């Protein structure tokens, strides 16, 4: 068993232990609420079991044969991730009300209480469904965010350059051909000098990307000086070498602890931090990566996970572009990412280093966003040195 396989199994084992526990908690409360409706609990139990396991079933089937059946289960399971989050929050809130009732005795008793539990369950389903619907349509709409930045260095190629940046595409079954074409068209509409993709281009296993022929969509990306990308944690989860090979075959240069001089600048691309857990290797330190770099040229760093931003400052990086966080993707998970990362989403100037962490143009898990957007960056760089 390879190191990547062990890490993948461990990741999903931990994930599904937590996910399964939350599902069990929610199912019990739903089971209790159906006490007033005789004969409904068996149907409820069967449906709940199927829906809560649909993502896992879909992924297992997909590995053997990608079909309408596997796609359907993956889509249902992906939506269910979001439903579980909001059902969990609402059930916890309701249990707190029940706890307070032990002291205040303000809830009705007997049959009236049974009716109240059923009505509350129905209302909960309607409200959560509405919230998730809003999140779905919000995620479908791509916003282009413009940044105008100055770098106090000369550029022999141009006084100004336009970069189009899209992180976290997560191409695969959920972000399929239609969505990929939408992303590519929006990037091209910027008419960029350079296109940069800071990681998680592939959602995981590259097989769905290959079967959907999404590489041909990526091949349509157009820019004056080329398209450059780096690895993200999802490339490592799904198998980094097949993913990188496929991306490279379709016209994108993947920088793996490498640097390249292009458009009068130096672009450095770091391997994702996941390389240690999934491949048993260590990525180059930023200090080593900048060795031999002409720091008189503008220096751009692509690093998928925005940890240790001070390193970029100390090594003279002019612009760091990251992604990964999704800013939690679903409210209120953004409060967690804000605690984990110095910058969960948006722009920050540290010293003379411009830093932008994107919440991504794609989605992982549920195809919805709440509390953030699907964004592409249009960065106008002005060189004043």
Query: How confident overall, as mean pLDDT?
Result: 93
Taking all Cα atoms into account, the compactness measure Rg is: 24 Å
- Strand order in the sheet with the most strands: 1-12-2-3-4-5
Structure annotation, total helices: 14
CA-based shape = elongated
Description:
The chain has 385 residues and is α/β, with parallel strands linked by helices. 47% of the residues lie in helices and 16% in strands. It is built from 14 helices and twelve strands. The chain has helices at 3-33, 41-52, 54-64, 68-104, 111-140, 177-189, 207-211, 214-218, 233-238, 240-249, 275-279, 286-289, 309-314, 334-340, and strands at 142-151, 160-165, 194-197, 227-229, 253-254, 258-262, 265-269, 299-302, 319-322, 346-350, 353-357, 374-383. The strands form two sheets. A six-stranded mixed sheet has the order 1-12-2-3-4-5. Strand 2, helix 6 and strand 3 form a beta-alpha-beta unit. Helix 1 runs antiparallel to helix 2 (41-52) and helix 4 packs across helix 5 (111-140). The longest helix is centred in the first third of the chain and has 37 residues, at 68-104. The protein is elongated.
């Amino acid at each position: 068993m390879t190191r990547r396989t062990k890490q993948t199994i461990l990741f999903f084992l931990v994930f599904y232990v937590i996910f399964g526990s939350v599902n069990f908690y929610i199912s019990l409360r739903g089971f209790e609420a159906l006490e007033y409706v005789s004969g409904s609990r068996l149907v409820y139990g069967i449906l709940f079991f199927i829906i809560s396991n649909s993502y896992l079933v879909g992924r297992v089937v997909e590995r053997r044969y990608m079909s309408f059946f596997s796609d359907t289960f993956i889509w249902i399971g992906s939506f269910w991730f979001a439903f579980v989050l909001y059902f969990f929050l609402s059930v916890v809130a309701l249990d707190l009300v029940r706890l307070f009732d032990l002291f205040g005795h303000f809830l009705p008793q007997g049959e009236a209480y049974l009716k109240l539990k059923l009505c509350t369950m129905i209302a909960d389903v309607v409200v959560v469904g509405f919230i998730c619907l809003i999140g779905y349509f919000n995620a479908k709409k791509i916003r282009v965010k413009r940044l105008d930045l100055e770098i106090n260095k000369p550029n022999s190629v141009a006084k100004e350059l336009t970069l189009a940046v899209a992180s976290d595409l997560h191409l695969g079954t959920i972000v399929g051909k239609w969505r990929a074409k939408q992303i590519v068209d929006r990037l091209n509409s910027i008419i960029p000098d350079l296109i940069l993709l800071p990681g998680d281009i592939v959602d995981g296993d590259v097989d769905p990307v290959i079967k959907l022929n999404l590489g041909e969509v990526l091949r349509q990306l157009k820019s004056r000086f080329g398209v450059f990308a780096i690895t993200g944690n999802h490339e490592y989860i799904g198998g980094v070498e097949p993913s990188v090979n496929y991306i490279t075959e379709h016209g994108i240069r993947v920088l793996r602890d490498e640097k390249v001089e292009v458009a009068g600048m130096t672009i450095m691309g770091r391997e994702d931090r996941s390389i240690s857990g999934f491949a048993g290797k260590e990525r180059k330190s930023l200090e080593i990566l900048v060795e031999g770099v002409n720091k008189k040229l503008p220096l751009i760093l692509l690093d998928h996970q925005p940890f240790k931003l001070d390193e970029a400052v100390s090594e003279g990086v002019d612009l760091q572009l990251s992604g990964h966080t999704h800013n939690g993707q679903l409210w209120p998970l953004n409060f967690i990412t804000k605690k984990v990362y110095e910058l969960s989403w948006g722009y920050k100037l540290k010293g003379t280093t411009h830093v932008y962490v994107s919440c991504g143009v794609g989605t992982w898990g549920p195809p919805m966003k709440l509390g953030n957007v699907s964004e592409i960056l249009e960065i106008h760089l002005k060189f004043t040195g």
